Amino acid sequence: MKLYTFDSEPNPRRVNLFLAWKGIEIPKQQVDLRGGEQFGAAFRTANPRCTVPVLELDDGTVLCDAIAICWYLERLFPQRPLFGSEPLTQARVFSWDAYLTSEAFLPAADALRNRHEAFKDRAVPGPEPVAQIPELEARGRQRVQRFHRHLDDHLEGREYVAGDQLTLADFDTLVVIDFTARIKEPVPVELARVHAWYRRITALLPPG
Amino acid sequence: MKLYTFDSEPNPRRVNLFLAWKGIEIPKQQVDLRGGEQFGAAFRTANPRCTVPVLELDDGTVLCDAIAICWYLERLFPQRPLFGSEPLTQARVFSWDAYLTSEAFLPAADALRNRHEAFKDRAVPGPEPVAQIPELEARGRQRVQRFHRHLDDHLEGREYVAGDQLTLADFDTLVVIDFTARIKEPVPVELARVHAWYRRITALLPPG
User: Which of B102, B128, B142 sits opposite A146 (nearest CB)?
Assistant: First the structure.
């Protein structure tokens, strides 16, 4: 197996935290997203969508989304489970992933990619040009702020995001929270439950 | 268990096709999205995000996303599996769901909700007002067209979307294709593989 990644970016980081927690080592190949390597012929053969992470199996099969890569590896390496073992816990992890993607990650990406000069005509990931829509920055920020408030409500009486145990949903949320801070939308100080949860999860992370 | 739904809408329909294929009957409660029932106090208690489908378990636990509801029911009712049984097939279904949501369903919803008068100040699902951004209609259509072409490429040499067997990914894609037709972005005639696949999957659907 080989993992195509670009370690500093949010979606690759989700897989990296998962691997680190489980103690799995997979050969990695960095794809320099800042230098445009994802659009080069070599990487496009692996993933025509030009995104990372991508897990390439020994027979050439590729898996292209963080949640799918993590599920596949969870089945192969069941130690230190991060989807729980009960159907309900697993369903909650998948539900949270869908929610987090549409209500937090994509809006944060909208805010970044529709404003920053570096993403001119690349407002959406992929090889085809997509023009920026500056109004999407404000909408993205509004939605990120709503997500922060909703997360704080959600954490009332909960130690973890998806139930009574640590799951991938906690790591994924941590990655998204760091991403929202990067676009200058940190979690407001008064959302104390989010801050307490963040410290709790960060303390569990393996070093590095 | 009880399923909150609004049968004519895409995400509820994903769950409905899944249930029909497996022959599962679950008591349903229609939530009239056109009449705004999703914002009423009764439904908001079940799902503060004000979206359907929602599966409510007997102990009051709720699951709020189509992919999570289907996974939970697949584990409870394993007959006529729609996620395959191998880790790789399951991972492909999850991967396709993530791709389909971000590259087809949400762009189609953007095109609809940012133009249509009925969605004024409701450009994003949920209880908080979000103003329309008319430019998103064109971007949404551009992305839907890109998705149609990509799907046609993807189906080269494939009978089913996520591998060599029928899975939820086929039903989900069918629902999204019907949704894109509804916003007047039907699949172009020349994308013959998509049309052949669509006829194949439609022929498998239970009546009704």
Answer: B128
B52-90 pLDDT, tens digit per residue, is: 999 999 999 999 999 999 999 999 999 999 999 899 999
Instruction: Tell me the chain B residues in contact with residue A101 when contact means C-beta distances shorter than 8 Å.
Output: 98, 101-102
Report ipTM (2 d.p.): 0.96
- Is the whole-model pTM more than 0.90? yes
Instruction: Pick the residue of B65, B67, B75, B141 with the most A CBs within 10 A to test the interface with A by mutation.
Output: B65
3-state secondary structure A38-107: HHCHHHHHHCCCCCCCEEECCCCCEECCHHHHHHHHHHHCCCCCCCCCCHHHHHHHHHHHHHHHHHHHHH
Q: Which of B98, B130, B139 sits opposite A130 (nearest CB)?
A: B139
Q: What is the pLDDT of residues A127-143, one digit of tens each?
A: 899 999 999 999 999 99
Give per-residue pLDDT as tens, B25-43.
999 999 999 888 999 888 8
